[in-house]
Specification:
Number of domains: 1
Low-confidence stretches: none
Distance between the termini: 25 Å
CATH class: Mainly Beta
Number of strands: 9
Strand content: 35-45%
Shape: globular
Structural class: alpha+beta
Oligomer: single chain
Strand order of the largest sheet: 4-5-2-3-9-8
Helix content: 10-25%
Order of helices and strands: EHEEEEHEEEE
Largest sheet: 6 strands, mixed
CATH superfamily: HesB-like domain
CATH topology: Hypothetical Protein Aq_1857, Chain: A
């Protein structure tokens, strides 16, 4: 099922980085975002290149890159945006999540 950028989005910066990694590894330009229990705040984000899209997955495309989110994770990140940021602390995919009520300093875990 296709999503709109308002339901969950992928920035141009994140799409460019996924495309770069996919080209280097020879994989499709598909980024999977999932949410798992754990981390210092209760939930944590997981990112990885996917080989394909599962039947129940929700997708959104940006600049030739597909972001894939499973239905359970979508409930926790709806309205969010996946970005790729580089700063003095390093480079990473980050989720701007309007549903998060608290998060950790590294930005990889959150609570709702």
């Amino acid at each position: 099922m296709s999503l709109t950028q308002e339901q969950v989005g992928l920035t141009a910066s994140a799409a460019a980085r996924v495309a770069q990694i996919a080209q280097r590894t020879g994989k499709p330009a598909i980024l999977r975002l999932s949410v798992e229990g754990g981390g210092c705040s209760g939930f944590q984000y997981r990112f990885g290149l996917a080989d394909g899209v599962d039947a129940e997955d929700m997708t959104v495309a940006q600049d030739g890159v597909t972001l894939v989110v499973d239905p359970m994770s979508l409930d926790l990140v709806r309205g969010g945006v996946v970005d790729y940021v580089e700063n003095l602390g390093g480079a990473a995919f980050k989720v701007e999540n309007p549903n998060a009520t608290a998060g950790c300093g590294c930005g990889s875990s959150f609570s709702v």
